[in-house]
Amino acid sequence: MRKTSAAWCIVLGIMLVFSLAEGQKIKAVDGVTVVSNGKKPNRAEGQPAKITLKEELSVGGGADPDTSFSQVSTFVVDDEGTLFALDFKDQKIKVFDRAGKYLRSIGKPGQGPGELGMASGIQLTADNTLVIEDATNRRLAQFKPTGEFIKNITTSGMLGLVGILCDDKGNVLGREMGLAEDNSKMFFEIKKFDADLKPLFILDKIEFPVPIPGSGVKMNILDLISVYQFGPGGNIYYGRNAVYEIKIYRPEGKHIRTIQKDYDPVKVTQKDIDEMLERIPNVAGGANIKDMFSFPDYFPPFQNFLLDDQGLMYVRTYTKGKAKGEYVIDVFDPEGRFIAQFITKTDLRLFKAGKAYGIEETEEGYQTIKRYAVSME
Fold first, then answer.
1. Are 141 and 114 in contact (CB under 8 A)?
2. Which of 2, 92, 229, 339 is disulfide-compatible with 237, CB 3.0–4.6 A?
């Protein structure tokens, strides 16, 4: 009887060990640390179990063309809390102080120095220089925060360069577009460049068919999404959202860590498809752009992710909350362990100096940029 009891104790102990290990499993694979997480948070000692956002400031809304937004594509915030928001439809960078007071607009249409053809992205470098992607003029335009034009850096040797990020040394991450030799496929190469846009290395290559009108060839737009961020020490965080997996690379490109998580796939409904198609404009007098896209049965595991000042990673999933526009955010500690979740309808875009910033629509349909104090318990 004692032997039987002892045997059951051993079995029970083994079961408990595996149960406790279910939250996170850490192993080394070919010199890369792989952190595998379960579906539920497993808070590590010293890490927060609850994260809340308290609204401090809302910018935008209303009918004033200076202080409202038609379509915010991206924004940046400097160390003083000054907000620089790129309004894609208005093709202006609208500047607001820390209290939300409108200060000025930067940029005007054109091809000359200090003019923009189609601004599609904005970054703020470590030396406080605004870098604006100008897709039509195929260049990066540099401005002082006061609005004075500095110079253009040409991207004419590339088919296209979008989605740029700058590190504190002036290096650039971005998506360079390319076309296969037989013109059958296009691709994005996610690359790191130096400050003069000299390629340093390629992180990933994403191929997709060329959706020629009338050919029946369609492109899965959700399959093109990839997310990258500069992290502590210049490390690069990269995720191709086909799987719930985020890889961390050293500044020189060496893969050192992979963060994985189990999840329940979210089905793509016809309502979801209709809402996505509504955001895609048709070319006037031309082909129906919307007929060129296809959609999968299920959403990818995540939409995007962000890093805060403490190295916590916030992953916006496709799991919906109860209210319209709400989504679940998964939170990971600096080691890659899944520690918390919260729900928000704000499209979080930036964490800086203990504050969170995101884009949110009002009930009247106006876009606003909001700042939140981040509370951790």
1. yes
2. 229
CA angle 329, 332, 337 (to 5 degrees): 135
Count of residues in the chain: 377
Is the distance from CB of 216 to CB of 293 less than 8 angstroms?
no
Residue 1: is it exposed, middle or buried by C-beta count within 10 angstroms (0-12/13-18/19+)?
Answer: exposed
DSSP state, 282?
A: P
Residue 190: Cβ within 10 Å count: 20
First to last CA, the chain: 48
At 18 the pLDDT is: 34
Contact present, 83 and 77 (Cβ < 8 Å) = yes
3-state secondary structure of 13: helix
- Lowest pLDDT segment from 82-96, 141-155, 242-256, 276-290: 276-290
- Amino acid letter for position 353: A
For tokens 């956002």, name the residue: 53
Q: What span, in angstroms and rounded, lies between the C-alpha atoms of 69 and 370?
A: 13
Alpha carbons 321 and 311: distance in angstroms, whole number: 26
